[in-house]
Amino acid sequence: MKRVRLLIVLLLFVAVPAGFWLGREEWLEHSQDASIRAAARRYGVEPALVKAVVWRESRFHPDVHGRAGELGLMQVQEDTAFEWAYAEHNTNFVHEHWPRSADEHPGGTFYLAKMLRRT
Q1: Scanning 61, 66, 88, 92, which has the fewest C-beta atoms within 10 Å of its C-beta?
Q2: Cα separation of 28 and 13, whole Å?
Q3: Quick one: 15 exposed, middle or buried, by C-beta within 10 A (0-12, 13-18, 19+)?
Q4: What is the rounded distance in angstroms from the CA atom of residue 98 to the CA atom of residue 18?
Q5: Per-residue pLDDT tens digits for 17-41
Q6: Stated pTM of the model
């Protein structure tokens, strides 16, 4: 009987929260698919590459901040973000709003495409 109680306690306090966490991580990953595909198509970059960069830089958590001032899913620095805004004639751009804006994937993908053309 003690083993059954121990198993129930383990399920309630370990397995169930772990399942919720894993489900949230999967949801986070797939919540970005449409905007990643749109940005990849716009700048001629493979969507899987953009998604790999997002995974590597932020694990799909938009509120991540880097040590050198990088923001958002693709960890873009302020100068790079303003370069994208200038190229796209976006005069209302504010870097601090970057992590939660619709501009994030296009801006990061713009820079990724630029770096791929340099090679």
Answers
A1: 92
A2: 23
A3: exposed
A4: 30
A5: 655 555 666 777 778 888 899 999 9
A6: 0.72
